Amino acid sequence: MNGNDSTSHSPAVSGPESADADRRRSRTHRFSPRKTSTWIVGAGVMSAVAVLAGSGVAAAATSSSASATPTPSPTLSGQPRSGPADGGATGIIESTSASSFSIQTWTGVDVTVDRTSSTKIKGGPARDLQKGTSVIVLGLVNAETSTTTITATEVDLQSHGDGGAAVGKRDGVLPADPGTPGPAKSVGTVPSDYTQGEGTIVSGAQAYAAVTAALAVYPGGVVDRVVELSAGDYEVHNIAVLWPHHVFETKQFKVIGAND
Question: Tens digit of pLDDT for each residue in 93-148?
């Protein structure tokens, strides 16, 4: 895997992208976009706490993250990344089974979600995990195969959600289009300590707070890792969409920028 990055809606800032790796990821996710009908209430670039309060999404992850001690992770210096990492996605449930279900993001990305005995269901009873329900899923993401899989740590039901469709369209998320290069586009602020390929991958509540904040502003893809930069800011790496691939947040989990 590769790359680190950040976002906000103001001055344009350009940032390099690991094109080959991200194109390989995008090509992995063939899809047929379809209409969805329910989701997270998010609004523009704002603090994660404010977004969560308005949407009911994973508030516990944010509140616990401040005191959480992340599992030590490798510090990467310009090296490609590989292997599963904590991340997440939001979408509409397409099908269910006894131990798993599948979701489709509003951009048409299909994700398999595996449940375990320790998976927490929030926002309603487990019986509400049924076709047509909007959810946000946080957990260990494996995007190294033709099927993206999340082993869920937490599933948050979005009783009036639309899988992120309204917010994603408003904030400029572009669905993947095989063979089409993504735009060289940057919005907001890219932290000064950001360098492509550098940073420390974080996990657990720290990662999930960053994922939740990013998905509340730029839903539609799959977050396959979160990287902490040297000054404490975060780059949230977003795959399976044309734009944005990198979402930037402050150490308080406030989205400040995004780029290709």
Answer: 999 999 999 999 999 999 999 999 999 999 999 999 999 999 999 999 998 777 89
Would you say the C-alpha torsion 131, 133, 139, 143 has a positive or negative sign? Answer: positive
Exposure b/e, 122-154, CB count within 10 A at least 16 = b: bbeeeeebeeebbbbbbbbbbbeeeebbbbbbb
- Separation between Cα atoms, residue 223 and residue 143, nearest integer Å: 10
Question: For residue 200, what are the CA distances in angstroms to 31, 74, 81, 234, 249?
Answer: 32, 6, 11, 9, 14
The pTM score is 0.72
* Residue type for position 182: G
Would you kindly state where each structural domain of the chain is located, as residue ranges? 19-68+78-259
Cβ 122 vs Cβ 58: under 8 Å = yes
Cα separation, 259 vs 248, in Å, equals: 9
